What does this fold into?
Amino acid sequence: MHRENAEDWRPAWRTAGMRFTPWYPRPNMPRSAIAVLCGIVAFALVETAAAQQFKPKTIQFKGDPEYSDVELLAAAGLKPGAVLTQADMNAASQRLMDTGMFASLAFKFDGQDLIFTLTPSTDLYPIQLENLPLTPGKELDARLHDILPLYHGKVPAEGGLAEDVRAALEKLLADRGMTATVTATTSAASGSRKVNAVSYSISSPTVVIGDVQLAGVSAQFLAAVQEVVGRSAMASFHSGASAGDLERAVEMYYEDQGYAAVKVQATQTGNPVTAANGIHVPFSMSVQEGRVYTIGVVSLPADSPVSSAEVDQILLSHGTQAWQGRRLRAVWSMLSRRYASKGYLDCKITPRPEFNDATGTVNYTVEVSPGPVYHLGFVKFDNVSDQLRNLLMHYWQMMPGDAFDESYVADFMAKAEQQDPALGRSLAGVKTTFDVTADQQTHDVNVVIHLAR
It folds into this structure.
C-alpha cells in the first residue's frame, strides 16, 4: 500500500472526529489471519464511532423553510452547544420523523456542523374543532404552538403531530376544569372522499349549549325570544356553528315579524359548566331590533328560472306582513332548487336588502353565483336482481353526461311505479334510499340507489 493512498483516507475518518492510524499487513501473513484482524479492526471502529462524543459548532436545518431552527431544535430535543453521540443524532432524527411533518430526513456531521436536510410532507391538513368549547383562531393556534413547536395550523392525517395536538387539546380542556376524551378523525369535502382536514371532537361527555344571556330585547318580544333561544339551547354544541345557529334562529323570528334589519350577535362567554348530563357551554346574545319594514320589490336576475309572477304569488299569499321572513325564505329556497335542478349544485343565492326609512319598505336585489354545471357520472341500483335492474334502467331517463337533477333521483322510484303498476306491486314493502357523491374537481355526480325490504 502506498503512503499517499493512506493519507487520502484520513479526511473521511477526521469527519467523524476520529484519529486514523494506517495499518499494513505483514508480508506472507495468511489470508485467514488477515480477514480475522480486519474484522476485529472494523468492529472496534464501529464501537468507537458509536461511543464517541461530538460537539457541533452549529446545528443547521435545510430544506423546509416553514420552520425556524429554534422550532426544529425544540422538536428534535436538541440544544446548541450540546455534546452528542451518534445515538443522540439518530434519536433526534427519529423524533422529527415521528411528527409526520416530513417525507424524509438525512443528516451529516462534517466535523464542525451538524446539518439536517428535510423534505416536507405534502400530506398535511388544517385542523377543525367539532364540539370542543375552545375558540378557534390565532389565540388557540398560539397556545398549541407553545406546546408543539412544529404546529403551524396543519397536521398529518393520523399519528405524529395529529396525535400530539389531540393530547394537547385534552390538556387545554383539563386546564379549564373539563375532563374530556378527545378523538381525531379525518374529514372530506362535501361530495368527495379526499381528506381535507383533521377534525377533533369530544366523544365523552356530551357537549351542549348552556345558558344564553340576552341583551337588547324589548319587553314586547322577551318571552318569545326566550322561547326561541330555549329551543336552541340544550342542542349539541358545535365550535364553529353554534353561535351562528343561535343568531339565525333569533333573526328568523324577528324577520317573520317584519323586522328585516334586525342584527343579532351571539358570543361564547364565561366558563363551560360540567354537569351530570355533560358540558354546558354558555353564550351571551345582543339584539338590535330596528323597526318594521314591509316588502317592496324583489328583483331577480334576468335569466332567473323563477318568474316574477311566482315570487308575487308567494309574497302575497298571506297578506303583506304576517310571516314576512318565512315567505322571503320560500322565494330564496325555490330559486336555489330551480338552479340545482339544472346542475348548479354550488349555486349561491345572495339577497341584497335596500331599506327606505321614509316609506318603511325594503327592496331586495338578488345576486346569483351559479358556479359550474354538474353532470351525471353513473347511476347504480344496489341489492336488486339483474331482471329488476334492467327494468328500472328502462324507466331511468337521466343519462350520463346530462345536467344532474337531484329532484329527479328523489322522485324516480315513485314515478316509475306509477308508470308500471306491476313494478309497484313487486316493490311493495321495499324501502328506497340513495347516495349522491359529487366530485368538485370533475363536476361528475355518481348515484347509488339502495333497495331493501
Notes: The longest strand covers residues 278-288.
